[in-house]
Amino acid sequence: MAVAADGFPMGLVAKFNLVLLAVFATGFAASAALSRTLLQRSARDDVLSDARMVMGSALASRDYTSRHVEPLLAQLGQGDFRPESVPAFAATEQFDELRATFPDFSYKEATLNPTNPRDRASDWEVDIVDRFRQYPGLTEFVGERQTPTGPSLYLGKPITIRDPGCLACHSTVEAAPEAMIRRYGPANGFGWHLNETVGAQIVSVPMTLPMDRANATFHTFLATLAAIFAVVFVVVNAMLMAIVVRPVTRLAAIADEVSLGKIDGPDFSLRGSDEVARLAQSFNRMKKSVVHAIRMLGE
């Protein structure tokens, strides 16, 4: 059995510290798991909020182009085609300007059969478009994927032909403006139908920086929690030694003296009204009774 410097067996202190360590380890593990989950969820929510903001900007650009720019450009020449009048073209061009400041962000009107080749959906984008085609009631799809610069969150919204006016350019080659055919050719962007989902607006936002911040906050939280426990551990052990261990050690020493016949020693004096103080008072009364009994036997 381990023995302290003053000779008191350390069993009580050791057991108390083992329980305290077990409680801390359990609480530390639970706090770490919960805080990590909450911080990562918060970081993901922040990224998703950024993605929705970018998507909202693209939708606003599309709407403005459709309501204000397209009618003005249509007046410049009957049957002429200007890509600036196309909402998808305007939204993409606007976002390309934004990418000068935020190069890791991306926006694309990924289309299965686009007029403009730059809008053709890649393999992973085709999967998103197919999901919208399989589930017509789905209005938004959120996912994550790995990129060369790290994990990225993407937000997709379906591009569904709701306006019959769109079919003027995308139904058949014969119905399309000649200027559009000259610009993009007759091979792509035709055969669309009303209420058909032909693509998806996809915004990609990097997750590396928000997740790094969440991890840094997580590690700071764990370090702070460990420091608080260390302080509590030291303070509780100091209180245990002062309030319980040392008084009981002194009480045990006096009891040993009485058991060896040293009945003239001083009483154990301890102020207070707690359990240890009441134990000391009971011990003093018992000692007096033992001393009195021994003296009576001696007479």
What this model shows, in words?
With 299 residues, this protein is α+β, with helices and mostly antiparallel strands. The protein folds into 2 domains: 11-29 and 215-298, no CATH class; 33-207, Beta-Lactamase (2-Layer Sandwich), CATH 3.30.450. The chain is built from 7 helices and 4 strands, in the order ααβαββααβαα. The chain has helices at residues 11-74, 87-98, 123-134, 167-170, 178-184, 208-259, 275-298; strands at 106-111, 141-147, 150-160, 197-206. The chain has a 4-stranded antiparallel sheet, sandwiched between helices. A hairpin with a 2-residue loop joins β2 (141-147) and β3. The radius of gyration is 40 Å and the shape is rod-shaped. The two termini are 43 Å apart.
In short:
With 299 residues, this protein is of the alpha+beta class.
SSE layout:
Blueprint lengths: L10 H64 L12 H12 L7 E6 L11 H12 L6 E7 L2 E11 L6 H4 L7 H7 L12 E10 L1 H52 L15 H24 L1
Antiparallel strand pairs: 1-4, 2-3, 3-4
